[in-house]
Amino acid sequence: MAEMDTKPEKTPSLTERAYKELEEMIVTLQLEPGSVLSEAALAAQLGIGRTPIREALHRLAREGLVMILPRRGILVSEINIRSQLKLLEVRREIERLMSRSAAARATEEERLEFREIADGMITAAETDDDVTFMRHDLRFNQLVAQACRNEYAANTMGLMAGLVRRFWFMHHKQVADMPLAAKRHADVALAIAQGEREPAAAASDRLVDYAEDCTRASLDA
After folding, report:
1. How many domains does the chain have?
2. Whether the predicted pLDDT of 219 surpasses 90
3. Are residues 147 and 62 in the same domain?
4. What is the CATH number of the domain that holds 18?
5. Distance from CA of residue 210 to its chain's centroid?
6. Distance CA 81, CA 4 (A)
7. Tell me: the pLDDT tens digits for 94-109?
């Protein structure tokens, strides 16, 4: 009889859990731009110690979602539309590279998960469920960063992803089309899953085209 795999499943650290929960709260505007945050209050709310909360906040600060100000506290950063347009210029080039590379380098296990994300995105589109979409979007970003096997591109994109997602969540009900956004993400995920490098790059460009149209519509509004 073959030996059973008794290797324990990897569980997220408390810092990773704190980061994930705080990132979602900021991106989905439960913690609004300009809000003053308290480590103690967040620790009590999430049931996590202050050290993981502090480490998560420092990571969020590197990503531009919060500002740590000496003697003033921790602020959720404001949203600037013109800065978002500059960010999209960089995002287009990096995401195209990462999508193409992920299509070439993803493992079979990762390709399976990309298919699952594509299915989840389509379900979110059909049900118009923006929170579910945001959760799939976070995992999609993480998986592309992992599968592209290029830590320099992944680190650069990691500094932008939360700002992009928060901006979209803030404005999508006024100027965006959530089902279309989910379908654009599904197109990229499916092309990567199928190992199609140039279709993945083209789908990535269409996704950023959509994001840029939404951003300019927000500026006009």
Report:
1. 2
2. no
3. no
4. 1.10.10.10
5. 16
6. 54
7. 999 999 999 999 999 9
How many C-beta atoms surround the C-beta of residue 175 within 10 A?
Answer: 16
70, pLDDT greater than 70: yes
Strands 66-69 and 36-37: unpaired
Are both 19 and 112 inside the same structural domain?
no
How far is 12 from 163, CA to CA, in rounded Å? 23
115 touches 189 (CB < 8 A): yes
The boundaries of the domain holding residue 129 are 81-220
Q: What would the 3-class secondary structure string for 135-153 be?
A: HHHHHHHHHHHHHCCCHHH
Structure tokens that stand for 183 in this block: 């379908």
CB 81 within 8 A of CB 33: no
Closest Cα partner for 30 from 65, 58, 81? 65
Q: How many CB atoms lie within 10 A of CB 13?
A: 11
Residue 13 has pLDDT above 80, yes or no: yes
Q: Is 66 helix (H, G, I), strand (E, B) or coil?
A: strand
